[in-house]
Give the backbone structure.
Amino acid sequence: MTGSEPMTGTAQAEGDGAAALRVEDLAVVGHPSNVRIISGVSLTLRRGHILGLVGESGSGKTTLGLSLLAHCKRGTEVADGAIEVSGTPLTGLDEARVRRLRGRAVAYIPQSPASALNPALRLRTQLIEALHEWDEQERGPRADRVREVLREVALPDDDAFLSRYPHQLSGGQQQRVAIAMAFAGYPDVIVMDEPTTGLDVTTQAHVLATIRSMTRDYGIAGVYISHDMAVVADLADDIAVMFKGEVVERGAAARVLAEPEHPYTRRLLRAVPLLRTEGHPEPGEPDAEPVLRISGLQAGYGRTTVLHDIELEVQRGECVALLGESGSGKTTLSRSVAGLHTQFSGEMLFDGAPLAHSSYRRTADQRRRVQYIFQNPYEALNPRKRVRDLILAPYTHLAGRPRDPDAVVANALERAALPAEYAARFPEQLSGGERQRVSIARAISTGPELLICDEITSALDVSVQAEIVELLRNLQDEGMALLFVTHNIALVSNIAQKVAVLNKGEIVEYGHVGEVMARPRHEYTRALIADTPDFELSLPDEARTADTQLPEAAGQ
Amino acid sequence: MLRLILYRLFYGLLTLFVVSLVVFAATQALPSDPAQAILGREAADPARLEALRRELNLDQPLALQYWSWLSGVLVLDFGTSLSGGMPVSELLGPRIQASLSLMLITAVIAAPIAMAIGAFAALRRDRRFDHSSSMVTLVLAAVPEFAVGIVAILLLSTGGLKLLPAVYAGSSTEVLSNPDQLVLPVLTLAIAVSPPIIRMMRASMIEVLESEYVQQARLKGLPERTVIWRHAAPNAIGPVAQVIALQLGWLAGGVVAIEFLFNFPGIGKALMDAIEARNLPVIQAVTLLIAAVYVLVNLVADVVGLAANPKVRVSSR
Amino acid sequence: MSTADTARTGGTATAPAGPVRRPGLLRTAWRYHRTKIGVVLAGAVLLVAVAGPFLSPFSPTEMAGLPNSADAEGTLLGTDEVGRDVFSRFLHGGYTLVSIAVLSALAGVVGGAVLGLVAGYLRNWADELIMRTNDMLLAFPQLVLALLLLSILGPQVWLIVVIIALSHANRVARVTREATLKVVEQDFVKSAEAIGVPRWRIMAAEILPNITSPLLVELGLRITYSVGTIATLSFLGMGLQPPTADWGLMINEGRTAITIQPWAVVLPVAAVAVLTIGANLITDGLSRASIGIDRGVEK
């Protein structure tokens, strides 16, 4: 365990008088195991300020966020410490008093509004409910307030809109409704639990702008929970970093970003993919014949066409990033290359020879040389097989029974930077990052020439993502060609040489990464770059080599 | 929405048609000679065999047999009972009423109680009420209903307390005028139908209570009453309605053993009597009827399920 | 980023043992009290059914005394309405019921699992055909379908097994298909498809091992229902035929004299009830354990 060092009081000394939120030595334990989910957490926050609460999965940031509303998930309780909102203590109150403070003193914006809005109730009902302590005599009708706050979050305020059900709204609109609901009752503190997860960058930018301006205008203290350092750097005035249930560092945002004191903070900062880099060095002159050449490809489902006229080339040893938001058709394209999506027309050449639509129609050699790695490491490995069999079964199928199976497994694991003992493990005994490494080991064991990576880091924490990207770079240096599918534009500059930007089924921009990033020609790419939080690593380089011997945060 | 309902309706009709085929095939088209089966040992007399064959239309081709039977069924003419010579529809009329009363009384009593128990168990999750109701439900769900009935008879009628009559005595037209005779059959059926409803209600309620929108409602500061009645209950009832309908459909078949046990003059008893007497037209009519009720109830459940879901209801306006 | 990489390998090299694997389904189920109680209850009845015939003082069909006498000489619990020893008939009456029930449940689960697996994985016309036929068959309550066929074809043991197995199979097929659909959506199946592993091998090696939990739960449930349905059929006179000693039939024969010779009814009813309760408790233990295992998919 690390991070139990005392807080250096540099940050919150000033402005204690106006503190809207004060947390003192808070601890939450789980039952019946009595494990401390969070412990010794202290925070203060002033009105009009936003505190970014950063941590990776399992760090306890959501537990902390919920405890600020005096809410504990089933099987957990506050064991220690105090929470004060505008001078009113929240801990130790009975259920009815807590209830009256919620919405008025503290409000909550959930991570996924699609599941946090009641599917069976109209928006009107759900919005008016948020004003349960509203005094109509003094402050006018509730309905008027609802319309007012809807206008503030840039949503329609007419009756037709209020009569809608949540499923009739887009994801961005749903999140705006949730924001309106939280701001409606003029709370002192608002807790936001990753409110932009699942939104595309453009919507995310709008939602963040709304949150920023409303927090300032209302003079509300905002607690913004996120795993995304880039977003927090953009939004927050103060930053608190959580690791294994403790706040290991907190302070003014500028200070934490520029002079992080805790090694974990440094590691987190360094793992953030940078939007603008010099790009990966060119691998030299392209060969005459690319590994993969796609021309005039159309693909669809049933009668709807989702991909139009795709032209794409991947050279040996080159990484081409396929960048697109959800629904852009990027997964359909990558699956067509893998032989998993068969409904397409057009030409697809692998090493000069045409690739059949279905993987079952391809030659064994083609199937060996094109390998696919899936997005979700928790689903990509058969939970009933050991790592050894996970690697050997495809190997045997594609390359025949090996003379020395142990050597095949050991070699594959080594190339994926995993110890050889992992061969005996089952997937459930691995962390998310380790599982993804096993997926990579499985794919590269047969010596493929083209690796298709479908959002392979999107389910992982940033620090793990950085390791996987590093691994892929090494593979590429060994001559592997990569088709790297992603929605994260910042990742593109960190791994690819070329990028193809996919929008609504069409490639709107295609070229060298450095060029596209510096001088995007298409307005979609320009908007994408503008809406992505531009994170710049401002900590000095010499801190790099020190103190990075931290265990992976993901746990098992 | 309308198109979905029409599709289900069409599908229900198709199922009924197939059901009629199965019933007909089982009774008249199987390689065994139904006339011989009916007469049993008396089949030695070729003249009687021939007469019966003619009465059952067995001398005609299968398709024609089926058609004449089906066209009768469509106008509620199920043929003539082989014992007594009464039209089957007339014979079954009062018995259908008797069985329907039994089923409806059971449903009206059992469904709300089962839902209340299930919901309460969910709210008291992992406490004593939840544990004991879950154990009792498990035990009752396992035991076949006729065994439950016999235990009820042993406890309340013959053995322990001599409170209620063990078997029904009376005709099918006066079912409602003998409430004390109804207690045991209704009790047994209620015990048999309730466990799945209780379990589903509990599971569905727990799922909803754990949902993010209920958490959000609590975080908004709503009173627990509002959270449960406005946010949780309406979303929990949808899946339960389907189970209730399924259980009602099950009742249509479940009454057979119970009516046999309690000698209750409904369609189940009629079926058992007809089987004993090899009364083919009655067997056909009753099995078809039970299957029809089953299909119909499932259809209603489907439609109710669709109508209760705002996503389906609103999106296709 | 090279530092992160060294951190990774450095950290794992020192801890080769790794986290412990979760225990399997049966072991998890055994942790619940209800599973243990269920095993004791069902085991006791199974013992009676299997060992009973060897221990009985009389043959199940021989006359041991006057009809319906509660204290006939030489008998433990008196005689039935024909004068046969109630206790001996009870000891003989479980074997057929239990074996038919287990056999039909096994056949139904195996058949249903194959159908459901094929339908759920292939998702083509075979799926449509299997599931639509299934829906049609489901339009009959299990008992009524059995009564219909048995009344026409005559009550025969093989027919009972076939009918019960069939009506189980279409319900099991539904459950298996649902379970299969969940597994098929997972990427490890697509990963096998991408390298062209034959379909049958994907079903056998990738999908089947991941749906054993629901199948085991189904087996328990189906045995419970088989016992109930077959006992009910015998009770209605459409199962095993006299003079066989059979629990369901004993209840049918003894119920008219329930006030003077209650044992002829009480014993078999208790046996059927205890067996089904035991089987259901085991099933519930299994299903609780399987929910826990399935939940282990995410971290």
